[in-house]
Amino acid sequence: MMNKLFETYRKSVFGNDATFDVQKRVFLLITHISIIIGIVGVAVDITLNLGIFLTLFTLFTVLLVFYFHIKVRNSHLSTVVGLSFFGLSIVVFSFLWFYNGGYNGNNIILIFVYFIVIITILPDKFRLFAFFIYAGLISTLTILHYNYPELVSNYENENLRYVDLLLGYFLYLVLVYVIQNTILKNYEADRKKINTQKEQLNSLVIELNETNNKLQNTIKNVEELNISKDRFITILSHDLRSPFQGLLGITKTLENNFTSFSDNEKQFYISQINNTLDKLYSFLEQLLLWGKIQKNGLVLNYEVCNVKELIAESLSPLAISASKKKLIIELLCDDELIFNLDKERISIVLRNLISNAIKFSPVGNKITLTAVSENDELKISVIDYGIGMSEDYINKLFKLDEIVSSTGTDGELGSGMGLILCNDILKKHNGKISVQSKEGKGSTFTIALPNISS
Fold this sequence. Notes:
Blueprint: H1 2-14, H2 22-47, H3 52-73, H4 79-99, H5 107-121, H6 124-147, H7 158-239, H8 241-257, H9 263-294, E1 302-306, H10 307-315, H11 319-324, E2 328-333, E3 338-342, H12 343-359, E4 366-374, E5 377-384, H13 391-396, H14 417-428, E6 432-438, E7 442-450
Parallel strand pairs: 2-4
Antiparallel strand pairs: 1-3, 4-5, 5-7, 6-7
Helix pairs in contact: 2-3, 2-5, 2-7, 3-4, 4-5, 4-6, 5-6, 5-7, 8-9, 9-14, 10-12, 12-14
């Protein structure tokens, strides 16, 4: 109930304006209290029969202040209204000085209180002007009172002076408190507003950073797609053209000289065609799988499998290539080691790594395959003791924009696509691949796969 009454009273003073304009609020407060003081003054003037002129002057002042109050409450505090109120205060204080005891009454305190209000409501450029006017006003009125005391209406007795001073001091104290409280509330409101704006700004900065990160990721993805496109075109134009040129050469030779070739020679050329087509088919499969990964179309099929058996199965298709170069392949793995992974895709990775080890190993050399489980992670290493690689070459191995393809120790050719495919497959498994190598000392490729619950 009390809250409702207070809210109704507050609206009668400040209106329905939800904004917190400290100058407007201080003006409405001072005019509101001035109206109350003026009404009490009119009642006192009539009760004590202080004269029709004083009563009418007080009433006119109340009506004028009431007009200012309503005007500002329904709109805003303009410079014209502020200056008009300032001028009115000068006239009223001069009048009250002579009709209310001069410096023997509470006029000086009243002037000081209203000076605080005037300084608050006036624009910056008028405040120093107001200071000099008020300073001149007090000085002039004090000098006039001192030199011409007969111009001032003194109190009839000390009791009236005592009551006037007591009521005046109390009202002015309340007025100063309300004004100061309004200014502090405005400060708190501004501080909260600033904190809110700061929080909103921080949120905007965070959103901007997130948007920027997304934009950077998008740009990076676009760049990678462009690199992938360029890489794809390069592979098609170079790595597919050469084998087909070889095939065309063989088939042209067979077409022109078929009847003159012996069965063994024909068998040799057919075998060459078959080997080339087999390599082309394998390469195209890898290329299609890589393209599928780029479009996020690869779905992994996890299954629990024996790691040693998986490595042996991956090695099997490469046994002929290894035997041609008289390579010894050693497999070091626990027979009972099992792991949950996509068997088909990891087999592709292993075949590529083993094929590279065979490719870059000298005749009669050795290749070691190891597999261990460490910290719930499967690590498989392919170790060769072949020609090795430089640090600069290693840094280019998994980059789409770098074409790295070397000829093997027996003249074997490659596209450099295999390791990029391996890296992408392992990323899909949340795994990784690492390389250790020195020129002339061989290379070690290690893949690491996290364990996925079956």
